[in-house]
């Protein structure tokens, strides 16, 4: 091993030395080895990782962000490239052979998707979209909402892309409700309507926590019942009577992308059956409920089973979330009878069965093709079957890799090669099950190790969110926040926050910087799950310490993205995201704690099919090294005995100011420098902007590092020269003041739009401004 940036990691002596045959295990696992419980694919994880993911170890990082984007296997890319090299593909709307070949690959991708989801024959269809977000947008925009009759209900721990569907529902005048899973209280008196939602045999029920009230642009609440009702596409004639039937939608997540808690379709069935009544049937009802499952996170390792009795009507799929490649393709998997209800307003090329440009005449194609506007990204879609085959190969014993034993590294898929034949022996669902067992073993090790960390006084170093049903073994004081209500499993995700010795939160931005310095890749922030993030971080941290001797699990702090035993998530701090935004916080920024010292987001480590114990250990070592306050020991001055050592003092050796972004530093001659409203005075005050409005950075303009600014406060100017090139002279820029601030402008900084002030030496001197622009253009070699 080598110590890389303070973290112990395996040392690899090049690709050839680390590559092993897939048919020889690294070492037979012992009976007490964690690998015997799912880790390592029977002891072959090292060879699998070396053959398929060598770039991870070559880069020297511990990759713990599989929920964000799992790495793709090398064999998947090779198989896709061979197909592209040897197969002539054309527009699938064309009738020639190349178009027909493309249509066959698209159909193969549809079939592979339905097989992975175990869909009954002929019952579901696959509509390709740009991703899971695109699938939810298509569903929300095409759903037949009706004013006063429809409702969009969703569990709180849903992805932002699911929550965003409420905009379409509210625009149509539909009701929007947040739904929580709460404990059954048999002692309380429950009304007749609420009793429909009871499921005493499970100990929990599903109920609305509150209704989302629409607002106008100025923040004034408006009455939902006043929405336009002249156009109600959802009011379909009822087959059970003369009345109209409105359509409503219930959304839930198969696996919380923030905490990893897994919820079954039983949650949706419990709510929908409660709305239908005791009979659980739509017959005679005025509202037809449909269910949508966000499976973007779950599809990789725990795909939904669409053959189950309570299977959802719609499923959101993102393919890169499953096997890393291709990016930009997703799917809305829907019951065929559910597709018949959707009514998209827009139509594009490829979906028309008949259209007249001069009359209001348009007929949409039947089935999935009627919802796929334009030309599909068929090159990306053609890689989907290879992705499912790569997942299926994990189910083999031993797991095979591309090219092993077939004698032809260049054989293309679909030509009867042994790669596809081997993958057909077991399906992608079996491969996902094996990968899930492996990834959960890594996550369990990570969670247990984090929970065992403690400060010198025994206080916990971390609080872990979730893990209410899969309790990791731990002997330390770590705090867990979660709820088993409606949760059937735990995915390979560890969401946590770091605590100081006094119990206050360490901001996730500080944790992210420490991880980045140690080569550990994690996700921080809200993780695009505002409901779960706000609730988890808002819960007070009581003295809930993990104790293995406590079998009744009373030490688990109740709460979670589905509700808690004290009355659901309605008890959380409603309106906190609004208050944070009003105070200046924007999603994705570095504001990681609020004014009360409470975290505004989490740190998320997520693991997948190629993760190792080393990845989890690197993360734990980083947290322990940077944030666990240890016992301070030193020698007494008088007796030389061991006592508490005084904390070392820090001395500022020099001060560096960076007035111009990406340029060299300016060191004040006096060694001291005044503070301004945002830190050191004039630090990061200026930036060079291209004619397209993009702030220049060293990554794209390396000569910026040669610019040497010097600030002369007395003269009120910043003088900029070029290191090693005195012939270019110097350029003077005014420090500011009433004559130095020009009009505002919007520029692109690090991928975001930022409003800045344009500084000029003299607003009336266009020639002077042009001279400054020309000097900087010559100095950096870019306009």
Q: Any descriptors?
A:
21 helices; globular; 783 residues; seven-stranded mixed β-sheet; disordered N terminus; alpha+beta
Structure characterization notes:
With 783 residues, the protein is of the alpha+beta class. Helix content is 25%, strand content 19%. The chain has 21 helices and 33 strands. Strands 4, 5, 6, 7, 8, 9, 11, 12 and 13 form a nine-stranded mixed sheet that branches. Strands 16, 17, 19, 20, 22, 23 and 24 form a seven-stranded mixed sheet that branches. A hairpin with a 4-residue loop joins β14 (352-356) and β15 (361-364). α14 packs across α16. The longest helix is centred in the middle third of the chain and has 25 residues, at 428-452. It is globular and about 80 Å long. The two termini are 48 Å apart. Residues 1-36, 186-201, 223-242, 402-419, 421-425, 542-573, 632-643 and 737-741 have low confidence and may be disordered.
Termini distance? 48 Å
What is the residue-averaged pLDDT? 79
What fraction of residues sit in β-strands? 15-25%
Low-confidence stretches: 1-36, 186-201, 223-242, 402-419, 421-425, 542-573, 632-643, 737-741
Main sheet makeup: 9 strands, mixed
Class per helix and strand makeup: alpha+beta
Number of strands: 33
Task: State the helix count.
Answer: 21
Helix content range of the residues, please? 25-40%
Summarize the entry for a quick read.
With 783 residues, this protein is α+β, with helices and mostly antiparallel strands. The protein is 25% helix and 19% strand.
